[in-house]
């Protein structure tokens, strides 16, 4: 039984085409940290809230071992069809990011590309504790999350919750990790109608 995931996501993915390509910041993070791996297939990535699989598609194409979990069966079906259609492999799990069905210390890297922001503060802490549990010692976390100071209306209104993160909250949210580093990404959108503000967080177990 899913506890925190909002069924509005299913509706969203049913009605809309979703982004098919990874964000530049994720590509840069993966390139900087993992492109030199001698055996890419041995590098295990887990994406929390993988949606229709744009990031898993990129990781699989680059030869890494990719696993994704999401509460949306509709999104996972899209991801499966796209990966299969291109002969790419990834493990997909229907489930909640706060209860990861993976063993301790089983991933080299955990990705959150705008999944955790859609959960309450307490649930976000649970999800991050789970991310830490499944990471190998020394494993890396990448987390992209919306920042305070931007209008929630710029994101979505009719499904799920939106939790914006302040700079002061970052060390508390990622307290279970070491080597916390973060950058910001601020841009205008819709001909400067509003600002989109995001944190790009990296940390290590
Ligand atoms: C903004 S979308 C991002 C999808 C994908 N990461 C991407 O970059 O295209 C957020 C995704 O997180 C999923 N999600 C949010 N909270 C979740 C939770 N607690 N457990 C599982 N999935 C969750 C939603 O179903 C949705 O697919």
CATH class bucket: Alpha Beta
Task: Report the portion of residues in β strands.
Answer: 25-35%
Helicity, as a percent range: 25-40%
What ligands can be seen in this structure? S-adenosylmethionine
**Overall pLDDT:** 94
**Series of H and E elements:** HHEHEHEEHEHEE
Q: Unreliable segments (pLDDT under 50, ≥5 consecutive)?
A: none
CATH fold type: Rossmann fold
Q: How would you write the strand order of the largest sheet? A: 3-2-1-4-5-7-6
Class from secondary-structure proportions: alpha/beta
CATH 4th-level superfamily: Vaccinia Virus protein VP39
- In CATH terms, what is the architecture? 3-Layer(aba) Sandwich
Oligomer: single chain
Number of domains: 1
Total helices: the number is: 6
Shape: globular
């Amino acid at each position: 039984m899913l506890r925190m995931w909002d069924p509005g996501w299913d509706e969203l993915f049913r009605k809309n085409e979703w982004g098919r390509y990874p964000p530049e910041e994720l590509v840069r993070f993966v390139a900087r940290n993992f492109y030199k791996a001698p055996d890419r297939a041995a590098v295990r990535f887990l994406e929390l809230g993988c949606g229709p699989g744009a990031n898993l598609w990129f990781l699989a194409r680059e030869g890494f071992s990719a696993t994704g979990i999401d509460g949306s069966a509709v999104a996972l079906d899209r991801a499966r069809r796209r990966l299969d259609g291109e002969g790419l492999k990834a493990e997909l799990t229907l489930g909640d990011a706060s209860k990861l069905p993976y063993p301790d210390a089983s991933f080299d890297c955990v990705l959150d590309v705008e999944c955790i922001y859609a959960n309450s503060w307490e649930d976000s802490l649970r999800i991050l504790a789970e991310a830490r549990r499944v990471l190998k010692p020394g494993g890396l976390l990448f987390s992209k999350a919306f920042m305070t100071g931007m209008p929630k209306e710029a994101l979505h209104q009719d499904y799920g919750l939106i939790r914006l993160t302040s700079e002061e909250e970052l060390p508390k949210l990622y307290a279970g990790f070491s080597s916390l580093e973060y950058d910001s990404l601020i841009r205008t959108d819709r001909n400067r109608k509003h600002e989109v503000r995001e944190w790009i967080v990296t940390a290590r177990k």
